[in-house]
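Lab notes, practical 5.
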Amino acid sequence: MSFLSTKITKFIALPVVALGTTSAFAQVAAPAAGLPPEVTAGITQAGANLALAATSIIIALIAFWGLRKLAQKMGWW
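Output from the prediction step:
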């Protein structure tokens, strides 16, 4: 099998795999409907905290990059 036909086969197979996993996720999520509200709230809060932490890190990296670029232009770096 050539390289191109392998890539095409994988590309065509992706939607089939995605559709197959959707039903698997639905089956896994069904028992989660019976979780206590405290657990669900905790999971939601953890997700929000993770998003906040990731955003903060990205902003810090962009600020560092900007300051470094400024320092390079001014001849300080």
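Observations recorded by the TA: DSSP finds two helices and no strands in the chain. The chain has a mean pLDDT of 77.
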